[in-house]
Amino acid sequence: MKSTLSKWCLMLSLAGGLAGCGDPPSPAQDKFQATKARAEQGEAEAQCQLAFRYIDGQGVTKDQAAAVQWLRKAADQNHAVAQFNLGGAYASGSGVPQDDAEALKWFRKAADLNNPEAQQNLGVLYAQGKGVPKDEAEAVKWFRKAAEQNYPLAQSRLAFMYANGFGGFRDPQQAHAWWNLAAGNGDPEARKNMATIEKEMSPQQVNQAIKLAQQLAEQIKRK
Length: 223
Fold this sequence. Notes:
By secondary structure, the chain is an all-alpha fold. It contains eleven helices and no strands.
């Protein structure tokens, strides 16, 4: 039976927003100066924090280009959050020319350091064929890595891949199970998608999918 789900309606955008470094400054100007001093001494975490002061205008005038410079310094020291956000800067063209290949490069570096946001964004780029030849199987691989870290956006996107047969074969039970986990993690659309795919599943298949979701949840807890 052909799926009634919209194939890509929720899958063609990268994770929204930026993953921040550290706590909000208070007071802003004093915190900015202290953070800048540590950043100039080469501390990667402070460099990442300083980038966000420039992004948000916390104690300094907003400056996307300066933010990218500090993100790059931290990213070059294998700071995964900085790498993820540097990838986001290239993906959106914020402070640098838009460049999908550079976005892919930095998302991959962060993904290899097990950053779930970067892993799921890498999945999106492979699914879209942006900065790299389209490869749905590779997209599934990266969505699953993030999903197994209990990242709800990746869980929902992995479910879409299984629901529509992208990346190999179609598996409604896997789709139902991953949407079940995403729904439990607050994804507002996941429960609706579960109800949609249940229409083509037998009661036995639904029960098996629920058991699978429980098993997956236990596996995630043990990691």
